[in-house]
Protein 1
Amino acid sequence: MRMQISQLLDACIFAASFWLAYEIRASDFVTITLGQPPIAPFEVFFWHYLVLIPVSPLVLESQGFYDRSWMTARKTLTWALFKGCLFISLGLTLALFFSRLLIARGVPIGFGVIAFCLVLLKEELMSLAAQSRFGQSQFRRHFLLLGTGSETERIRHEIQQRPESGVEIIAELDLNQLQPEELVNLLHERAINGVILSSRHSLFDRAEMVVHACELEGVEVWLVADFFKTRISTTTMDDFYGRPMLVFRSTPEVSWQGKIKEAIDFVGALLLLSLLFIPLVVVALFIKLTSSGPVFFKQQRSGLNGAPFTIYKFRTMVTNAEQIKHELAAMNEMTGPVFKLTKDPRITAIGRWLRKFSIDEFPQLFNVLRGEMSLVGPRPLPVDETKRIHDMAHRRRLSVKPGLTCLWQVSGRNEIKKFEDWVRLDLEYIDNWSLWLDLKILLRTIPAVFQGAGAK
């Protein structure tokens, strides 16, 4: 409930911020005193304004802004808010650009700054209110803790470390010895608001008894669902046709942030292909004139969850490169199933130049448009190399879409000789994925391309 209230307040703040940024830019002080040109009336941007209101809280949610307690460190809060406002301002600028609406650049910038300051002020005021005596009395709720001795002790300790949660443990009972009458009496006598239930699979029958009793009393039950000790996966709750379901996931969760990534992939690939169309045609002509064979190299690569797809690249090798690959196997410089060779004799003269500046990879923008790849993600391996991966942990790199660039490519890929190090960087990307990480990798890719840190 708190999150919904906060999102509603933030939507109102973002709406007010855009209106305020527009009014400041359209004011006589700016247009007359400062000599800036007038801008279009507010009605022109009305539909963008309407879309901005519900989208802004969703972008903040994608940055983890709402996934926190009241007492989260101010630095963490500010950083998440800054990233959210930055993405919203950039998205607004792109939306206005593609809509061919001319608006002073000061409006999106001013909107982002104003929204950042007002949301931060709101958070400070709400934090002060929550810490006040009145706030604590309003948010304080009485809970009953049920489970075995060791489990309830651990949960009680965690709750005590988070006083801002508003949870106060009134009593603790051993689930093994609990009788239905004892539970009902406690609910009546102590005015219990909720029950925290920690039950291993061997106590499911007693847990069901507690849930049924609380159902009749109208008391909440919070089931601590840590039945299995996972090492990597995060656990979330979902609904499957009316049935509650636990989901164990070791990959980024399907979210608005993921949908934004897909939109950025499509728009980014389309924009790059439009801008680079003529240079790519020139490259294709050079390849055709300087060597015999097709312009493009096509190969089966492993995509999401290992599904094969056809990847497109500018051809940089002789036409029979795949047939003579086995003759060079002894010269492989990379451990594991991957084949890498610095001075590969199969590469053509123009191919070496194309690889140096990663120009041969640009046709993969078509794969991005088709949804087979992303702008950022682990590099796709040939299907035959994927089949030679024997360590099951290494296959987790297939759990996300492959990409044009990745953490490995901007972390000195030509210096990495072990496949394990390559996989480690891919898994580090998967475990820490965010739109902000994608943006940083894209920004680091640009100088890497111009510096000629190309593929082997």
Protein 2
Amino acid sequence: MTNALPPLSGVANEEAGDEAPRRGSSGLKYALSKIGGALISLVMVIILGFFAFKILPGDPVAKMAREGNLSAEQVEHLRHSLGLDKSLWGQFWDYLGNVFTLQFGESYVYKQSVSSLIGEYFWNTILLTGTAAVIAIALGLWLGQRSAWKRGSFFDKITSGTSLVLWSVPTFWLALLLLMVFGGVLQWFPTGGMMSPNPPTDWLDRVVDVASHMVLPVITMVAVVYAQYVMVMRASLIEEMREDYLTTARGKGLREDLVRTRHAVPNALLPTVTLVFMHIGGLIAGAVTVEAVFSWPGLGKLTFAAVTGPDLPLLQGTFVVFSAIIIVMNLLADFIYRLLDPRVRTS
């Protein structure tokens, strides 16, 4: 017996030692595969960002020539200065150089670098979409878990019905409706912009001024997004309510509120993690409609102005930035989901 113990212990230690590297290498392999997939997606986005906008109708040089009454020689000089007289592949290499140096070229309309324009408008979009995302996530998850716990009740029917209706409403239609009713007829809130034409000088009054301009666009973005969190959270929690561990928790004497908040809701939150991060990226990219309707000075309004140009460098720059944000958010969702769910780590 004593002679047999050391080999068994050694085998156990050897197996434990093998298991740790396997788990570590599995985690590293998972991270590398996800990062590699994200990089491939980003490369495809960069390539698509050039060729997709090249097939758009309209010649920016011809439009600028009509607006400026340029002669034929001036038109050719303008085309040469913009690099549009080069071959398609020559323009593509110039585009790649601008992307990888994070300059994105010079805007045809604004006559400044696209990177400086994006930097100027980026934080305005983050302010608007970040506020909308926090409200939508908190509201959607709270209503979803309450609706699931009271499944079939009047509260559940009203919550689910309202969520489905708002989910199906087109964003631009809801934005215009809120603009006409609360900005035009009732005149409760400003109809556009980020600040008043003559903004107050006191910092607190400026904050209130900006907040009043945010109300309608934030309500629009929250209304069309929060419903997805409601429905996913509701479905996840209803599925968790069938599990045996909740019966065990009740058998220990826990109140229903504690059973829900300590046991059911944390497990039901797992499927919503990916959705939350995906929609944070999508919410930023989807700000084009809302910012255009409410004249909010962000990347969405900048993109809308670039489309009407057509301002190709600005379109390509905003497209790459929006797509990169979505890719990064999806990558974070994959990592956080693996961190929260041990079943993914051991698979």
Protein 3
Amino acid sequence: MFIVLNGPLGIGKSTLAEALTESINRCVMLNGDHLVASNPPPSNLLEYLHSTIAFLVTHHRHFGYRHFVIDHLWRTHEELADLRQRLLEIEPDAEFHCLLLTLPLEENLRRIERRGRARAIDEQEFEQETVRKERTLLFESNNGGLGEPFDVTAPPEELVSKILEQLRLDAFK
């Protein structure tokens, strides 16, 4: 099973991915931002990310892991379709779920502010502008192709229960 968490900066993708991974047996979390963090950046970021994810899924499957929570920001339906195709080539019978995390803008900005207080470098202004652009891209143009909308205003433990119930994943606990 693959659960993809899509959404703008600061919405809680990594926090939710970690909590979800801890709730599903034989599960691995793959954080897209961490996988592409390189200097210099790859010339084709999406190709680099998707081939890395496919490689890691194959690797982890060899060691008995069967479920994957993958978080990142995918901007177009085509980007997600490419990821889905690559993953289903590895495991054709796997379930593939994509959730587009949603949250009111004010709360998204508060989360960015809280996160920023714990950082050594002040990137508040940059992150606030970035999240506004990403939200416009994701929410104003989304027709379901960027994931099933999923409200993340509740605490992570409530969200995990809701996702497991929504996806009928009780057997994976």
